[in-house]
Amino acid sequence: MTVAQADMTGAKLREVNFSGFKLASAKMSKADLTSANLSAANLCDADLSGADLTLASLAQADLTRANLAGAVLTRANMCGAILNGAILTSSGVVDAAMRDVTMA
Description:
little secondary structure; globular
């Protein structure tokens, strides 16, 4: 499903299932994505700055050039995620699973 360029700034999206969705350039800054399933989602150029991604699954997600500045990634599953050019400044990456992550 495509939700590209959608504006979900500050939205309450706890436990939402966006697995495999096309969310390129989506605006999700300060969104509550606690326990959300974003596995294999296309989040290229998405704005996730300040978002709460605690316990979220970002496994195999494409986060190329995504803005994750200030995002909370506590215990998030980021295994196999693509983070080429992603902004992770001041992100809270605590106990996150990050095996096989691609970063350039």
